[in-house]
């Protein structure tokens, strides 16, 4: 695999995310209290656009499915842990490097926490593997039949259009709160297009992903390469390192180009609820990063692997991951973020 190509893919991903401000702590935190719906709008737009494009690729024989397995305990419990981590960190595995590139030092603390979470998961893999028994790898495609039929095409096209229209309905409510910007639409459509391009079997033939790189790097740094879990991280881990390096570079480039680069630890939403204590923010970012990666590995996927890629494929595992993730995210925010 050409590492430069993967770096450029990460660069495109990082620029798209930066343009929509989907990496920003304040954007993700604002979603938790529904002050802004940009995160949800972006994800749903990407699912709609990507779902239609990938379906077309499948019918033309240009791509194949890349579906995460549904593990009843692992997927649900991992999603819940991931949601708690996302609330505490204010980031996702793929957005932390972008924010670090833009000067957010709490994102670095989250990355270190993620490496620790990856290492602990690697060490505990044997007892945890009992929670990761695969039930199925079902998608909408397998549920409607084993052949590409016009019925399947129509169902996917309709669902994709419903998702796209739903984003504009959500945007109408956002506009009433003064959030009139449309950056989220460009980012969402761009992510759908990028993922469809990655699915092309004569190019990358793989989906977006970020969380496997953390246990892979931790395994190499801490000498855990002989563990039972490490070998399964090598292929995706190597790809994701170059991908995330490109994303980090994109964050820096975007921040410099827009004159928004700023070294900071706390952010407006954090300060409104927890004050200016930088140590406290770094500690909770580390804890959040730890839970993010631990939960993602237990569920075999994160925001990019389940919400985006899995959502575009209408995969059972990914939709089952989304539910506990949102429960953990919203409940933790309600308990953890209280106005000072």
Short characterization:
With 340 residues, the protein is mainly alpha-helical. The chain has helices spanning 3-19, 25-32, 38-59, 72-89, 96-101, 105-123, 125-128, 140-144, 150-176, 183-199, 213-221, 234-257, 268-274, 278-299, 303-312, 316-336. The chain is globular and about 60 Å long.
Task: Explain the layout of strands and helices.
Elements: H1 3-19, H2 25-32, H3 38-59, H4 72-89, H5 96-101, H6 105-123, H7 125-128, H8 140-144, H9 150-176, H10 183-199, H11 213-221, H12 234-257, H13 268-274, H14 278-299, H15 303-312, H16 316-336
Helix pairs in contact: 1-10, 1-12, 3-9, 3-10, 3-15, 4-14, 4-16, 6-11, 6-14, 11-12, 15-16
Word description of this protein:
The chain has 340 residues and is mostly helical. The protein has one domain. It contains 16 helices and no strands. Helix 4 packs parallel to helix 16, helix 6 crosses helix 11 and helix 11 crosses helix 12. The protein is globular. The mean pLDDT is 92.
Which regions contain 5 or more consecutive residues with pLDDT less than 50?
none
Most strands sheet? none
- Helical stretch count? 16
What number of structural domains do the residues give? 1
Label this structure with key terms.
340 residues; mainly alpha; globular
